[in-house]
Design a protein that fits this description.
3-stranded antiparallel sheet; 17 strands; 7-stranded mixed barrel; alpha+beta; 2 domains; about 250 residues; globular; M1 Pyruvate Kinase, Domain 3
Length: about 250
């Protein structure tokens, strides 16, 4: 029997993950609070006067700045306060206030260095996730596939490398089976999601969130497994909202 093994969200695009025990999904919407914010750079086309979902290259990204993945975060959606812990440093940023957003942008800019020049600003669109896809669909990842990929790479890969939302596991879950689920429905707790397609991957998956450095690059192994394109996990549109929690039964 398949189960929901873990829930993650990423309040700020390319910063660290936040572990959840339960969440309420809404039809047609992304994971609540996931990629609710992103950090723009000098060449960003994001327009704060007309905020809308904008492609990923307009923001600071782990693929260019792997050290961003190292930060541990916790976000309170009621107060909009974001706690960021990076090594021995810890700070709280009030993202409801201009000075809090400016402070977070400066922190991210310190990581960006000369890789992506500033000025840097915090971007947000109410109710919209700044994920790489405009589909506004949570992602489903398989721990069975992760274990197989780890064997192929020859190292235990941290699931946070893949920045997935809903991780599933259990008896009968065949590695990589999820890549054939396009068009099928996944029932998790009280919610129903329609699988869209596998997720194409980039060098961001080579960033180890434990260190913020690139190591054990899984890109060649993912390409070999799929026969050409690096794929891992799937996007899935919420067609019926509801509560889901770690331990819920998953059926496809």
């Amino acid at each position: 029997m398949m189960k929901l093994a873990a829930l993650y969200r990423y309040p700020v695009k390319s910063l660290g993950s936040e572990v959840l025990e339960r969440v309420t999904l809404t039809a047609g919407r992304a994971m609540p609070g996931d990629r609710a914010f992103a950090i723009t750079h000098k060449d960003s086309a994001f327009d704060p006067a007309n905020p809308a979902w904008t492609p990923c290259n307009n923001f600071l990204r782990i693929v260019h700045i792997p050290s961003l993945s190292r930060a541990l975060v916790a976000f309170d959606p009621e107060t909009e306060k974001l706690r960021v812990k990076d090594g021995g440093d810890e700070a709280v940023y009030d993202l409801s206030a201009a000075d809090g957003r400016e402070a977070l942008a400066r922190w991210a800019g310190d990581h960006a260095g000369t890789i992506r020049s500033g000025p840097y600003t915090v971007a947000a669109v109410p109710g919209v996730s700044m994920s790489d896809s405009s589909d506004q669909a949570p992602s489903i990842m398989s721990l069975a596939s992760l274990r197989d990929l780890s064997k192929r790479v020859g190292a235990g890969l941290d699931p946070r490398r893949f920045r997935g939302n809903l991780w599933i596991d259990g008896d009968g879950l065949v590695p990589w089976a999820e890549h054939g689920w396009a068009g099928r429905e996944a029932r998790i707790g009280a919610a129903v999601l329609e699988v869209i397609e596998p997720i194409g991957r980039c060098l961001a998956t080579a960033a180890d969130p434990a260190t913020g450095l690139r190591s054990d690059n899984p890109m060649p192994a993912m390409k070999a497994q799929s026969g050409g394109e690096a794929l891992f996990g799937v996007t899935a549109r919420v067609v019926r909202g509801g509560d889901i929690a770690v331990g819920d039964t998953v059926s496809v």
